[in-house]
Amino acid sequence: MGTVMGTVMAMVTATTGATDRCPMTDDEFKIFRNLVHKECGISLSEARKDFLRTKVEKRLSALNIGSFFQYYKYLTEKNQEEMLIFLDSVTINETYFFRNLPQFEMFGEKVLPDLLERKRRARDYRLHVWSAGCSTGEEAYSIAIQLADAIPDVQLWDVRIIASDISLRCLGLANIGRYCADKLRDVPSKYLSRYFRRDGEHYLVSDSLKKMVTFDYHNLQHENGLENMDVIFCRNVMIYYEIAEQKRLVGRFAKALNHEGYLFLGHAETLQGITTNGDFKFHCWNKGTAYQRLRETHG
Ligand SMILES: C[S@@+](CC[C@H](N)C(=O)[O-])C[C@H]1O[C@@H](n2cnc3c(N)ncnc32)[C@H](O)[C@@H]1O
Question: Ligand 1: distance of its center to the CA of 134 in Å?
Fold first, then answer.
């Protein structure tokens, strides 16, 4: 805390009365970087200094604020709405339909048959999936396509896909469900005519898919009370977090998942070194990978 205040004071001295902006100093970088980390867990390395500077400068211009420090004060003292805009601006939202196809194949051909068989046997017709860090919605709609495809009597089931993100901008686009062709590059052709409608240069997802997905704001730094999930997709999110945040997040996923439910991570993400107490079992099928929440063995 003392260090942070020291840095803030150094920034005040450096920027008081300044109207022209100087390059972002190391201290200014650190204080914004710490803020991002504290608020949403994203860890920005030194190499991301230009990225962060550009994002902050955009907000300074939009708000006609003269210095990094004034903006820092504005952000942290007064304005929750601006905090949402700022955090949104530092997120990386790259995504597309059926990203990491082997994982979706594993989901459709291995994981879903296993889940559906167990559910039918128990006469439990609920199937709940969480797309955590859903960006503009392509992942959640890809899941919806596979569920609609795998469950012929889907209307008899309580199928829910909850898709959450910290970016309100992305959630707005996800709700609209209108995508350029490039985002559909990996969609298997059998699904194109069934679940999409051409709209000029774009494609609209069908209403039947939209009905299956609920988009909601949620910052993964905080609990959101979701439980009894059968599957969680959290892909290409943890990659931006340090180990301690990853551990906290996976702990929350373990609580939110049903026993024998599945967790899908991005291809560069792993639970190795994150969980040590046998909470999850690793599965590999063709080139797809997933983790399965194990039954509690203690207690
Ligand atoms: C690279 S995208 C991944 C999208 C999709 N899961 C995929 O794999 O294609 C990462 C998403 O995670 C979101 N994100 C990052 N930190 C978050 C947090 N603390 N809470 C909620 N969403 C977060 C970002 O806003 C971004 O949309």
Answer: 6
Please indicate, yes or no, if residue 146 is contained in any of the structural domains.
yes
Same domain for 130 and 78? no
Q: Does residue 103 have its Cβ closer than 6 Å to ligand 1?
A: no
pLDDT tens per residue, range 90-103: 999 999 999 999 99
Are 57 and 204 part of one and the same domain? no
Entry pTM: 0.92
Whole domain around residue 247: which residue ranges?
101-293
Give the DSSP H/E element, type plus range, for residue 214.
strand 213-217
Q: Output the CA 122–ligand 1 centroid distance in Å.
A: 34
Q: How many domains does the chain have?
A: 2
Task: Kindly state the tokens that stand for 61.
Answer: 């211009």
Q: How far apart are CA 224 and CA 226, in angstroms?
A: 6
Ligand 1 centroid distance, CA of 236 (Å): 7
What tokens were used for 33?
């970087």
